């Protein structure tokens, strides 16, 4: 051990000595940490683009993208029938619901309890084997902690222990605790099957249960999120950006999905409905009829027409507010998206890029052709009421705070670069410089980092007023700005898709990241910018669904980039041919799981159906990865180094040992 650098180390070591006041305690901690370094790497689970599909999301969480099923197959092999393994997996996923069905049909429930608890203990023992006893203990429910620990650490192969284990299980059954114990054990398996969950953006929009997903995440053990464009839209609405509020409402109406807005967050849409009926009561609003999916309940004609009129009302309001922000921020270069300015309201045409098109309809009662982006008095009152409703939604603000606490624009974890959509590039593949609030240009890592700082500024009370105002406005640019790393397209053709039949006007030209990301050298350049190291480094992102039915491969750039758009949303299934991908990174390597559409939790419980998945082994390690091979391992090694310095200080009298206060 080299001599300590007293100036740099001594103060820190004195603080460390309060936690480890003796040589014995410091030595014990070194031994413990060294042992942890040699445990297998914990399993990481990657999901993206969940889009409010809470049933499919919760099922994928419960089955860990097939990881639990894989464990059950490894443990039991041919010892039990396939149907029994299937039943066991369903029980682990949905313990309470499955127990009710089992008790209806089982003649000897006590015998079933015995067999099942033994099986669950085996699975729990396997998934807990990667962790220290201390970490496992902290994961256990207090009411069954001691019992589970005893069962996990006692082997029935030991004849002397067989009676002991049987007595424990007999007592669990005889005291009427078997159901609660099975539920608790199943939850422990969920908890330990995945060490860390990574969500690569877009919890919100399209599906009906984003608020339910956020409730689930509130209690999830370890997770992070790299914000997606749809998350940013809701964050902007929460921060007070009225154009974002209109976009949020418009998307909800477009997919006939108001559950998250009204039931989840209590957003009052009655003022919008009243305004829409008064303004568009005689308008068929054909362009704005909602997209209903096969899973949606049937809408009656009256509800469908009201939804369409509300949809048109909020869309026109959105176009006006977006144009006002474009005028306020000319540096965004969004003047070409002020489309209400380009309409000839007498002829019902619009001129774009020198070409004139006929609009599908020309009923714009709230637009003054001389000043098309000015709000009417009724629209001003409406937006005030909507703003108030978003502002007072306690649950929405709580969920957005949760997203801020666990999220960022990007993350580098275990040699993997995670982000939702893109890193802006030039045509030659070099990193593109983008100007931000301070008038400076940033690219690559610095760009995403500083955008993250702007986002947080919108929610910080101590931020200067002008900076906070800009940050709130900036959410719209992140949603639809050309150089936004969450959008990265030539335009968002919302207006064109509503009012123009010419498909050429609907085209949104993708940025160079999407055109060049199959190039390994460019992926390396991006990872270099973010300081991602190691021979087996990767970019992992979502955002754009993988079109499997046309032959697109989610593995790009010779394995350096993986696209895992979850494809959970039913709206994408016809387009992609599948229900997307999830990724599992365990101690032996990467498994990419291709999913078929999920039916329902009811089917899973009653019929034992699972999300059918095809596992593609992306990359396997020559040796099983240990904690020492991870970022956490580097932190632990640094802790060991510091403790060794503390031992040196104790043994050489630089710092005196002390008695721990009782």
Description:
The chain is α/β, with parallel strands linked by helices. It contains 27 helices and 17 strands. The chain has a 7-stranded mixed sheet with strand order 7-3-2-1-15-16-17. Strand 2, helix 12 (210-218) and strand 3 (223-226) form a beta-alpha-beta unit. Helix 13 packs antiparallel against helix 21 (465-480) and helix 14 (242-254) runs antiparallel to helix 17 (301-328). The protein is globular and about 95 Å long. The model has no long low-confidence stretch (mean pLDDT 90).
What distinguishing features does this structure have?
662 residues; alpha/beta; 5-stranded mixed β-sheet; 17 strands; 50% helix
Shape, principal axes of CA atoms = globular
Q: How many DSSP E strands?
A: 17
| Gyration radius, in Å | 28 Å
Distance between the termini: 33 Å
What proportion of the residues form beta strands (DSSP E)? 5-15%
- Average pLDDT: 90
Major sheet description = 7 strands, mixed
**What is the count of helical runs?**
27
- Structure classification: alpha/beta
Residue stretches low in confidence (pLDDT < 50, at least 5 long) are none
Measured as a percent range, the helix fraction is: 40-55%
> How do the strands line up in the largest sheet?
7-3-2-1-15-16-17
